[in-house]
Amino acid sequence: xxxxxxxxxxxxxxxxxxxxxxxxxxxxxxxxxxxxxxxxxxxxxxxxxxxxxxxxxxxxxxxxxxxxxxxxxxxxxxxxxxxxxxxxxxxxxxxxxxxxxxxxxxxxxxxxxxxxxxxxxxxxxxxxxxxxxxxxxxxxxxxxxxxxxxxxxxxxxxxxxxxxxxxxxxxxxxxxxxxxxxxxxxxxxxxxxxxxxxxxxxxxxxxxxxxxxxxxxxxxxxxxxxxxxxxxxxxxxxxxxxxxxxxxxxxxxxxxxxxxxxxxxxxxxxxxxxxxxxxxxxxxxxxxxxxxxxxxxxxxxxxxxxxxxxxxxxxxxxxxxxxxxxxxxxxxxxxxxxxxxxxxxxxxxxxxxxxxxxxxxxxxxxxxxxxxxxxxxxxxxxxxxxxxxxxxxxxxxxxxxxxxxxxxxxxxxxxxxxxx
Length: 420
What we know:
By secondary structure, the protein is an alpha/beta fold.
């Protein structure tokens, strides 16, 4: 009799376990950092905390390189029949993802009042790239603006006010000349990796938007755009405050912390790393301007791929709401330097205290007031490549800024003709 009771109890436990396992919803998410990269531990830790609070959902993160590599790998997996529900991809990819019918609209997927309110809780500047034709397709997460890092010790040594960074192009050149000396350049702006992004910053500082809101037209070779690219090139060729040739995106942070340049333009996503690595006092400032101060936004959004079951869609929304909640957005910003994506995050005690003790953490947020959407069109990857190639051709002096941008504009017009 005892054996029967034990056997029955064991069967009941096994059935309960099987039912629990069957009820668990599994999500696969492609994420744009390299395996073993500095942020893997941060993301892994957040996912583990989510699992503790949501034992009925399992999230598997696939770390897949930079944004371009992640887009290729995620879409290849989907087209190969693999089960992929989520990815953090470039905010600028929204037009192509929507046009190709690959992603769900969060405006359609969210049902409850709380979920609908969540969609309106983010900074408008960060929502711009992910909102198309009145619907939300991308949820801001790993987001950034370009900021200017500067070496306060170098400023003091050059007789410059270490608490006052340049606010105009003229001041930038004047300061860079005073800061340039043996083994130290005054300013470095990267021209590999994301050259279109740095050029876009200069163009909008000169009053020129490079694309229309619909992503169907570009304005790459206007006089203002040509003037911006000319200024970019002349930092090295005319003013001699920057090295000639291309400047590597991936190694510029090391160049700055090693004292090879007194100022650099880079993503705010490098802020925490610079804080850890620099053995000198440094500052962070909004980018200077000519006609106006400005920066494009950048970074990645959450996207939900089509093909997910109803349970997976709900689990994905639950996961993204959890990841972007104010306290976690605050912790994420502190751990990485990326912008906390909602005003509520900056109202948390965590981020208030951090901002008071480390004011550079608030610069990217403040710059959102003058930020514009990152360069994005239909056929984004191909149009962006045309623009990046034009920037590099001008920087390396293989083409004049006018000729390079004329060629890029002509190519963009051909690619976008069917969308107009």
